[in-house]
């Protein structure tokens, strides 16, 4: 789910792209007047309802119309939630800056700004959606985003149109329409937070309940609820206020920076950064600069620290946009390399290098919330809603309770009305049934377990910014892992170099402390083919580059030399060397699309040479065939299969002609001489293997998603235990067929000789779980082609896909979403910037980086270790079970009380206020607080807790407990009336008969030993044998239910470990027994109880109802099949003898499924902007 909003067509209204439906409405005065009257007559209740349901407000006040005529716009999300939001159309006047629309259109003819100005009023129609401004395109009849430079511009158009800067007139118009270039997150006033929190439906219902309780003189519990609610509101407001201040401080530093811009015909100007607009020409001066916007570098070169967005403190080199004369938009022309030309908001320029044009220039690309930084902030302000069955089922269950309460209200009205009670009393009693059947404390009780779990996770170094995701962690059954830095150590160790001379590989060179490389092309390549810089006195850059540079041993100085604004990097040897040093003249930075980098360097006093490093397969393709050994592929496979990371090196001499800066990348990276293979070792982290074994034992699938070489990834997967030694790896390769629109897909086994009988690859356990004995591995390129051309095969491949290599950030996000479509609950664990998108879209994203980029992830581990994954799943399972326990307990407690009250209503009786208070406060509230103290069970069992409230075991458990409680209460109610000492009028007849006292009719409803006068003051009409019997039975039943529903193993620790809860239950039971046997008149008077009949209570054996083997047997007996897509697919493939088709090639049809540029996943625009979707 991406947070840029594009709109799709709905009915007859043309829109842009598909994330929200949009509908136009026009306000009608007569409807508005009727609504205002309704607000007044309903005392604001109708207005409150419209506040909760904005779509109802629009439907009642407005009529449908086209978007062109609309003054109100209604947006509806296209996901399962279908959430509506109401937006008011505003008009912006630009008449102060232009005399006529035609004058402005002459200079801005291809711009959205000219297409949005309406004549003759010179106004622009706008709406704002989640901090992003959209204007109405008069010609296209649709809303389009502003605040960004349009994507249709070509490379040459950007240089020509914006190279000299905007005119003052153009800049003013754009600023008025786009708004200020600020990521403004104001600190929300406390009064606004209070009002918003108080108007929550939960608190409104509590307010209704409290008012009713005060009307019935039930003041003690009403006061307690008010205190707890106020405490909850203040804590929530405090937390929200603290988050608001933190977020405000995070972004305020970028909102007001002095920058230099170039104005067309006016030269350079200094202004505050909030005045910047898309298209402005920004001048980057020497020294450190914090970027206030996203910008395209059009001249010079920059070194940027992107750690604020990526979490990786590695200097990144940015090069200027090429001046290419073609008709392709600049993003399409640059492909995935467009990021190398873009400077992102919030990052720091630490070094600039001007070219022959003298200054470093950049064109403003995006401003405000459209920037990379703004997108990150918006993802925090507007998080993705969780679509979890537990929450949906909880709402359905509440609706059932409300329906249950409605039946009770009808019963109450009938009973009291037929007995001639006053209308006011009948209404109060009927409304009271709602507050009994639907407990106001239910939502608070459900969140208690999550709060305690969050505290336990914090103690273990796992921080959570999205608490509602904790319960979802309990359902995870697939976890995707990044490789480098997550499963393996961050750093790479040089293992050796395999040199190539005269078309043959030589003996491998081992990197030992006392054995350096001999002088030659390889030495030069290691010394200069990198993007390292000296920053804050240290050589910094990519860890791979640092290791290569350090391996030369001779080189200990890396300094910047030059005159004026032009710089050259000079590498000098520390000891004696054949040369004084090597100057790096020009650099082509590493490109993930090209999988290589190259530099042009020159020995001091020598000739220029080109050096290249990158993926071995790519480097070999760029070399002259006679320089590449014939056994290149077998040697590469030999080392990658052992888990080594292999880099290819090549070089060539550049003869006179063009100056180095004028050479294109294609000219430099061709006709190269292959130098050999640099072999690096990437060790597994110590905890990787045990954690993966623990997850495997718990039947949680593990998948590797990496940007590394596929052979290396497979080897690491085997070493880590993801792929068992006896299991087969099948390589899936997909390629586009040259000269056509079709594609091919091939399955190749990597171990042909290991398993001869392929049909034995799948075995099924007794529980029905499929253990795959084969694993698919594929590259990002193959994944993309499969998603486009073989969409029907993708689910089958994902079912057994374990290794996904050379995956781009957008492909990682897409892969996670595809797993989710198969009904997997997906966790993603990563530490790099390229994992941000996948961390965001996963059900539970776990970041191992504590940098600012971790705000994209719901969970962040303080320790960079995957040991946090099973810990989080354990706590998630415990929290989920706790939520179920609390929900069942609260539902049962309210139902038990509800049944008891309805039973007593038959006699026009009810529980007394102190009886209610004891059950509500002393029993339920204390149990609700302490039941959640139980911690997670230390072992992960091979099955998950139930995730559905509406499931047979739970429903049967609740229904049978309700029936049992009802039967016990009716039994007690009837049996007490059959006792020989029972009297309907004298509540002390049992005591008097035992003690041979004479009965006094005037004393029949009084207390033992209390005169008539006292009786008149203390009796409230609640005391009766039926009342006492039903109340004590229901109270003890609540305690039994609390104990029975407090489940321990296998997801939580045994209940006896929760000492506080056990002591609370013992104390509460002791009080109940004390009330049964004590003979204290004042206490009985307060509690509205009489002499208590003794009885025995038997709880329903919960163990039988929620017995897992029993339900598995029933499922098997009645041929029950899981509704999960992946389970159904597993069942189909188990019976498909032709799957997988080994050593076969399929061809697709010529029509391919269109896959958007970012493949549908949320991703930070720093690494994969969604601008290509415009």
UniProtKB/TrEMBL annotation:
It holds the Pfam family Cation_ATPase. GO terms for biological process: intracellular calcium ion homeostasis. The keyword Translocase applies. Keywords: ATP-binding, Magnesium, Membrane, Metal-binding, Nucleotide-binding, Translocase, Transmembrane, Transmembrane helix. It is found in: Membrane. SMART domains: Cation_ATPase_N (SM00831). GO terms for cellular component: endoplasmic reticulum membrane; late endosome membrane. It is a multi-pass membrane protein. Its main location: membrane. Belongs to the cation transport ATPase (P-type) (TC 3.A.3) family. Type V subfamily. This is Cation-transporting ATPase. It comes from Cyanoderma ruficeps (rufous-capped babbler).
